[in-house]
Amino acid sequence: MVLPLSLWWPTTAKQKGQVKISALDEKIVGLYFSANWYPPCRNFNQVLVNIYEQLKQSGANFEIVYVSSDEDIEAFSDYYHNSMPWPAIPFADLETKKALNRKFDIEGIPCLVILQPNDNKDEATLCDGVELVYRYGVRAFPFTKERLEELQREDRERHENQNLTNLLTNHHRDYLLGHPRPKQVPVASLVGKTVGLYFSAQWCIPCVKFIPKLISIYHNIKQVLADKQGNNNNGHEDFEIVFVSSDHDQASFDSYFSSMPWLALPFGDPNIKNLVKHFDVKGIPSLVILGPDGKTVSINGRNLINLYQENAYPFTEARINTLEKQLDEEAKSLPRSVYHSGHRHELNLVSDGNGGGPFICCDCDEQGSAWAYLCLECGYEVHPKCVMATVGR
Ligand SMILES: [Zn+2]
Ligand SMILES: [Zn+2]
User: Fold this and answer.
1) Ligand 2 mean position to 348 CA, how many Å?
2) For residues 270 and 166, is the Cβ–Cβ distance under 8 A?
3) Which 3 state secondary structure label does DSSP give 142?
4) For 130, 209, 282, 334, which has the most beta carbons within 10 A of its beta carbon?
5) What tens digit of pLDDT does each residue of 270-316 get?
6) Which catalytic reaction applies to this protein (predicted)?
7) How far apart are CA 226 and CA 221, in angstroms?
8) Alpha carbon 238 to its chain's center
9) How are the residues of the chain apportioned to helix, strand and coil, as percentages rounded to the nearest 5?
10) What domains lie within the chain, and their CATH numbers?
11) Which numbered ligand comes closest to the C-alpha of 210?
12) Cα of 311 to ligand 1 centre, how many Å?
């Protein structure tokens, strides 16, 4: 086993605060690779301290050991003594820290490698504790394969049983906010519609940039559906968007929501947290599409809107496949290379399987995938539609 004979406890009397490694023998141990200079580590640290304290209070057989990648002893001391309640490998013990990084193939931080007491401690059963802690909190404990499978099974069941009512209502509220305020729209009135859950906030710059586009596409989809219904009386397809706010206060929510033509969950509603967890929303803006039966159709609504605008509706796999084929067909007539105003290098046409992949468009700042124009020299990448709008050859 590569751990040293003793570890530091977080005490200002550092030298005295030591613990024997043998004290960890019967415990589930999380080797925590982290550093103070990296913001994602600091964010994760708060979350980890929180679940550590909960687990300790409930008497769980758990310990964390900090393996520092701090640059110097001052940075280490500051980070460790001010924010960690668990033991650490002594900062000066470079050998052990290096050996642990090598042994567990640590490629990025933060990283939490979980060792089970009945492992021989030379093999970790689990290497992605960070993701688990973020996703499940204390429920992830004891971090075993069985527990993980159980949680995934629960997730699957929750998704299979999901419908608009259990997603959007609670014991105290069965309506959404509409316009003009304080109009209330029953959640039940959305049943049978395609519904987009729009996770967003006014403080988020990409959200503010995305919203005019989403509003215009929302109106276009509504228009297409209205025309369809005009032509064909038995069409009752409909589309709605529900704003799921992560604004910091009621006033920002009110002002932001007043710019939107659709519905919203009330500010600070308890369902919001659950929705973020349920759909594993990692960043905003994000648009989750629910089908007429309330099941998830796509969690990539934002990307689909960027790629296909109103044509993306109803966002189903079949629809997207058709659109992808169309896009491939259209790409055949695109020039292999172009110049884009504002960029001095030549841009080359690339696709998913051919030098491309998901990207952020340097022209409109939105996501893209499938076809793109890419500068091989500096990585400048734009949507074909954005480059064709201003193409100069
Ligand atoms: Zn673009
Ligand atoms: Zn370039």
Assistant:
1) 10
2) no
3) coil
4) 130
5) 999 999 999 999 899 999 999 999 999 999 999 899 888 999 999 99
6) [protein]-dithiol + NAD(+) = [protein]-disulfide + NADH + H(+); [protein]-dithiol + NADP(+) = [protein]-disulfide + NADPH + H(+)
7) 9
8) 28
9) 40, 20, 40
10) 6-153 (3.40.30.10), 164-321 (3.40.30.10), 328-389 (3.30.60)
11) 1
12) 17
